[in-house]
């Protein structure tokens, strides 16, 4: 499967993953997971009275990853099309003679590999979700601290109207929290796979359903009501949840990167010694933002591959199932890296309220044109008010043009013009929305 022991190995892998997540995704983790599945299979068969308990004990005793070489198994996998076949061969040779007929009994390679990948995903989601919890907490602190920190909102790349940095952070918070909830649900619902050669469990006779229940229980996974060999919804749910996380993290990273531009300068990433340039000594690049954005760009292709191969033929697929393995692990890898870097980026984010106010004031009040028009609308109608304010906005000084226009002054005093140009009076429900976002997250804590 993977040429390296961990997705973080090599010159590039560490730029996209998180070490604690990647520890559950490399070849050693896959080997351990496949052996855990074989051990659970033997235990479940013994529980159901289908194989002798001493044989099950002997099989379990040999399901230790250090006894097997992933490189050797990987080379041998090419002949069979998957690594389970050579592993079963080596496991069978390793157990005592009396236990050999009972190794892998009743299962097919897909049962072992599907369930092993489920185990890997569930194990990787542990540290991934911890990173996500940290990111959620950091976003909540930003939203709370900057609930009323005014800044300019941008739409279609242009300054638009006043908002607050608290509301921006509340949006980040909500996206991360929703992604976390969906990922938790998808992870908890990942089932064990056991169907035998064609999904009938014929080798177990009437004890098949009991074996499935006991097999899943030994692995601490839910049991599927029927095999999902060519019904890939559990995997699609996980892929979609991981894709959603990457989208939520990517949105934050994109915002941070734009707000950190020299000409904007409203935020900066923290961290001493990070963000240097090989050519320009003065530069301090938003590295976490860049790498999370890169991960988010990779996500849709990986999710699309898993959805594209989900349409599978008959009882077992030829090629489509095989095409899932590496994209799934890659998706977990980049999502783990995005979660970890988002947590660090948000926890260390430097917010610059003064610079935010300077940018808000840079257009001389033009970002409050909507507020002025709203005040005029009750007197002259919405369309006429829009036209009057548009005319004033074209002048060098917006405030001066408003005060010099007799049609506007007929309805607005200087005090009323200045009130309309006060950004704190045109924040609408921003504070309420921040409070709602914080309450939703705090209320969702276990």
Verbal overview:
With 446 residues, the chain is mostly helical. The chain is built from 19 helices and four strands. The chain has a two-stranded antiparallel ribbon. It has a two-stranded antiparallel ribbon with strand order 3-4. α10 packs parallel to α12 (325-347). The longest helix is centred in the N-terminal third of the chain and has 37 residues, at 109-145.
Order of helices and strands: HHHHHHHEEHHHEHHEHHHHHHH
Largest beta sheet: what is the strand line-up? Answer: 1-2
Query: Would you tell me the overall average pLDDT?
Result: 94
Report the principal-axis shape: elongated
In helices, the fraction of residues equals 55-70%
Quick synopsis:
The protein has helices spanning 10-13, 19-22, 27-47, 53-62, 70-80, 84-94, 109-145, 165-188, 208-218, 233-259, 287-308, 325-347, 353-361, 369-380, 382-393, 398-404, 406-409, 414-420, 430-443; strands spanning 150-155, 158-164, 267-268, 350-351. It is mainly alpha-helical.
Give the SSE layout:
Layout: H1 10-13, H2 19-22, H3 27-47, H4 53-62, H5 70-80, H6 84-94, H7 109-145, E1 150-155, E2 158-164, H8 165-188, H9 208-218, H10 233-259, E3 267-268, H11 287-308, H12 325-347, E4 350-351, H13 353-361, H14 369-380, H15 382-393, H16 398-404, H17 406-409, H18 414-420, H19 430-443
Which key terms come to mind for this protein?
single chain; 446 residues; mainly alpha; two-stranded antiparallel ribbon
